[in-house]
Amino acid sequence: MSSPIVLHWFRRDLRLTDNTALHHAAAGGNNVVPVYILSTWKKKHSWTGSTRQQFLCGSLASLAKNLETLGSRLLFRAGAAEVELERLAVETGATAIYWNRDYDPHGRQVEERVQQMCARRGISFHHFKDSVMHEAGEVLTGGGQPYRVYTPYSRNWLSQPKAAPLPVIKSLGVPPRSTLTSLPVPTLDYWELPPCTADIPEPGERAARDRLKNVIDSGIIARYSEKRDTPAGQTTSRLGQDLRFGLISIRELYARALSASGPAASIQTYIKELAWREFYMAILWHYPEVFEGEFNPDFRGIAWTGSDEAFQRWCQGKTGFPIVDAGMRELLGSGFIHNRVRMIVSMFLTKDLHCHWKLGESHFMQHLVDGENASNNGGWQWSAGTGADAAPYFRIQNPWTQTKRYDPEGTYIKKWVPELRDVPPQRLMEPPAPGLSLAPGYPAPMVDHATERDRCLAMFARHRGKV
Ligand SMILES: Cc1cc2nc3c(=O)[nH]c(=O)nc-3n(C[C@H](O)[C@H](O)[C@H](O)COP(=O)(O)OP(=O)(O)OC[C@H]3O[C@@H](n4cnc5c(N)ncnc54)[C@H](O)[C@@H]3O)c2cc1C
User: Fold this and answer.
1) Torsion, Cα of 368, 370, 376, 378 (10° steps)
2) Which residue has the higher pLDDT, 465 or 411?
3) Model's pTM, two decimal places?
4) Number of domains, the chain
């Protein structure tokens, strides 16, 4: 009797190593048909843009090649997942569908529909925890409630046993050669997107594994607690996009980080960042309404009054605040911004320019190669002072003193804002005289920080008076 045929539906798990659902799909000698289903929107999407889609395309091309070396073939279909999976199950005679769970509201809805289709069709389905160490329902208070604050969440998260990585898949049962159709490996043209102009990391599982090795070998985790707030040079792991697309597994990253050489406290600081990622995923799971508005009900409906012109200057990195402009240009140039600078630019947009955090959230999702709905929403609401365990609204960072503290030599600023290359570092830490700019061709600061800070405090106070 021939082996059963099953489908593996690739989603945000574009790897062969330690892929939970793929491991189970392949177990017991099943013949596995791997498929990736392309979304059908065209030209523009509020959650993504050319930068991240380019990384996705490269990662899919790499996955397709890796599957070929196992004698398999990655199929590309496009449309609604439940329709395409049903069609493919009929074409192949598949008796089961395997996938790894996705936790954001859109992913959950799609899974729901796929499950209904399977139930209707009598196809068995098997879905797995894969992209997190602990799912939202596994880290709860003693009373079984979701945490709304990070520190007790992280204590609980850290105390739970952690799954070890699974071995790499060395062979994959493939169905007898068939005439199954596939779209080509996608390029940006498929979504009718403009070319990616950012210098993004190399996509694909092999490149991600090399990055992970480099992070461990070069001592980035060993020095993490000391250096992670310095935006110049590589002081953090830069593995966000690899976690986002599942090019490396969270179990492997955790295990490798834990056994890295270096002070235990630094390793622990790094691991706590992985818990932040899951904290925000849990917030989005329990409170999907954070996509629509403020997590903190006290601040719902606040009147953000920033102008479109101010927002555009921020997007282009032309605010006249060197650290802000460096961050925004780093985003456009590389699809990345250092975490400390993400905080600075997001606070500046909301507290100095009074623009709605949702504008910034969307701009980040268009350009970040590691753009992740849960972390991005969490980060933006943190900075706006409206989120779960957010920065209190009255604690407003001053971009000039932040520069003094985190980029005292101006190394980061000068890398991204060439107009400021010859300006002495000291002058990058304080505003120039009113109306003056720091260098020819560079704009004067578009606002006065102290004035806007007061306006922002008044805006929050007015709103609090109303609720
Ligand atoms: C306004 C704002 C928007 C953000 N948007 C995103 C986003 O879209 N996607 C994203 O992955 N992170 C986001 N972050 C969190 C953080 O800035 C990035 O995860 C980090 O900069 C990625 O670089 P890294 O891989 O070198 O991080 P490292 O410092 O090396 O940390 C390792 C990993 O831990 C996780 N992590 C670290 N810090 C955080 C954090 N504060 N919240 C959640 N996870 C964290 C990430 O997966 C990261 O790759 C945002 C933060 C802010 C303030």
Assistant:
1) -150
2) 411
3) 0.97
4) 3
